[in-house]
């Protein structure tokens, strides 16, 4: 049985599009359709991007970064995991999970998991690219896929896995101040990852890393992950000690 989340087809934002950062995508004076011009910009950048591929003999997983064709501006769909889960309980994440033996490829994994978690029909999402592989603290290689969905798609949270589904305008992450900067360690590397607060949701950790890479590749956000930012917050000791 699926539990219907709060209606997720009601688009709206108090934030502008940050026209300077988005290459003029918000130029309504010319009659430009903001949502489509921004999505087309994202599509073009992803087409020209060469995704990072990690040659590692480790378990694989995939997530979907759903991008809506919203009336006001595109929004990114996130989930909050159930507090009853053994790992990452109550955390914000993209829909996704481990690759099953029967999955044709990792893009199918992302679509299958999205169907299971948020009820997204396979035929209601258009995959437009990927940013590159990342590795979780559990040693799982995760591949994020970006997919465009229509704003009228009804998304329903699977109560066995999720507490809620919510949307955030893309411009929020370009204009809002970060909540903090987390220092995450992986082997001999340190990464300085933004954390954002949106309403009562915190977006951080591996989810934030994939989000930042999407913003950088698709919109030229220029958010650095390898240099310290203001007031870094040091997580507990250990590699990727706050989130996998």
From TrEMBL:
Every Nudix hydrolase domain range: 58-199
One term of GO molecular function: metal ion binding
InterPro entries: CoAse, NUDIX_hydrolase-like_dom_sf, NUDIX_hydrolase_dom
Keywords: Hydrolase, Magnesium, Manganese, Metal-binding
Cofactor(s) named in the record: Mg(2+); Mn(2+)
Coiled coil: none
Protein name per Swiss-Prot or TrEMBL: Putative NUDIX hydrolase
Lineage: Bacteria, Pseudomonadati, Pseudomonadota, Gammaproteobacteria, Oceanospirillales
């Amino acid at each position: 049985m699926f539990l219907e989340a709060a209606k997720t087809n009601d688009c709206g934002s108090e934030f502008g599009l940050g026209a300077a950062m988005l290459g003029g995508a918000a130029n309504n004076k010319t009659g430009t359709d903001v949502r489509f011009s921004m999505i087309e910009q994202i599509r073009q950048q992803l087409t020209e991007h060469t995704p990072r591929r990690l040659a590692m003999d480790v378990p694989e997983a995939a997530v979907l970064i759903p991008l809506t064709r919203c009336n006001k501006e595109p929004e990114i769909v996130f989930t909050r995991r159930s507090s009853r889960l053994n790992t990452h309980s109550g955390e914000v994440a993209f829909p996704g999970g481990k690759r099953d033996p029967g999955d044709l490829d990792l893009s199918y994994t992302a679509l299958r998991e999205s169907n299971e978690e948020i009820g997204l029909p396979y035929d209601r999402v258009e995959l437009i690219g990927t940013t590159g592989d990342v590795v979780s603290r559990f040693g799982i290689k995760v591949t994020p896929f970006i997919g465009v969905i229509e704003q009228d798609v009804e998304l329903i949270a699977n109560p066995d896995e999720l507490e809620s589904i919510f949307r955030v305008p893309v411009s929020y992450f370009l204009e809002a101040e970060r909540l903090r900067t987390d220092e995450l360690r992986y082997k001999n590397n340190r990464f300085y990852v933004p954390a954002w607060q949106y309403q009562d949701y915190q977006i951080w950790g591996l989810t934030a890393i994939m989000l930042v890479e999407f913003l950088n590749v698709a919109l030229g956000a220029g958010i650095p992950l390898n240099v310290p930012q203001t007031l870094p917050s040091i997580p507990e000791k250990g590699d990727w000690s706050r989130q996998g």
